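User: Sequence recovery, please. Input:
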């Protein structure tokens, strides 16, 4: 239904949004006084959560539209 370019564009947009959220979480954690390793762990957790959320939403939309 959608071309490969649309799928690639959507994937890139989701990755950029997840990276921005991770950078923001890491920065806020560091400003809050967390150590560098703790801030990186918060950023990684946020990135993983954003990707997981995107996958869950994609799966739900795929099952609804069929």
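Assistant: Recovered sequence (66 residues):
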């Amino acid at each position: 239904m959608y071309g490969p370019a649309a799928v690639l564009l959507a994937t890139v947009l989701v990755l950029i949004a997840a990276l921005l959220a991770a950078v923001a979480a890491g920065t806020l954690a560091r400003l809050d006084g967390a150590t560098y390793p703790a801030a990186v762990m918060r950023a990684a957790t946020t990135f993983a959560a954003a990707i997981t959320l995107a996958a869950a939403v994609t799966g739900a939309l795929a099952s609804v539209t069929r």
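The mean pLDDT is 95.
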